[in-house]
Protein: DinB family protein
Organism: Billgrantia bachuensis
Amino acid sequence: MSEQQDTACLDSLIEENRLALHQLQALLGRLTPSAYRHAFGPTGRQSLGKHVRHILDHYDALLAGAGVGSIDYENRQRDERLEAEPEAAVARVIEISAALPCLHAHHSLPLQVRYPVEGASASLVLSTSLARELAFMTSHTVHHMALLGFMAEQLGVALPDGFGVHPSTLRFWQKQAAEENSTRRETA
């Protein structure tokens, strides 16, 4: 891949992540602190705040690891303030979103990701790329946003169309709608 194609690829992946974070920020703006901390499930171990903190922890791991060539998603800060205070989470979302374009500075560094395997004495160390990890982050974030959407709906929080839907699915829906509109115009 040429340098120009590599830059365009990273730009697209960074933008997908920033769009997901923007949706997350919009959701956070709709939540009261009590809704953010509301305990779900039979054990009460799930909350909107815990999922948001988990998402942000992964971005922090990516941002910290990309510059040194080694990402470890298991070794996270787990800042409890981010799961208890929606304002703190909003501030961190804004910081992360602003920092993502800075990843371009590390695009040519060799990159590894640590991956723990049950029963192994040490984590696996896998070769990866910044583009691959940004693609993972989009999928990971959207997966947790789908869960956030389900929980938020249980609390009566209105969500925008497309919240918690992967960009590839949104593109597919748009393509389907365009084809349906085209077919309607042809038959009219």
Remarks:
- The first strand starts at residue 70 and ends at 72.
- Helices lie at 3-29, 33-37, 48-66, 80-84, 86-99, 130-154, 167-187.
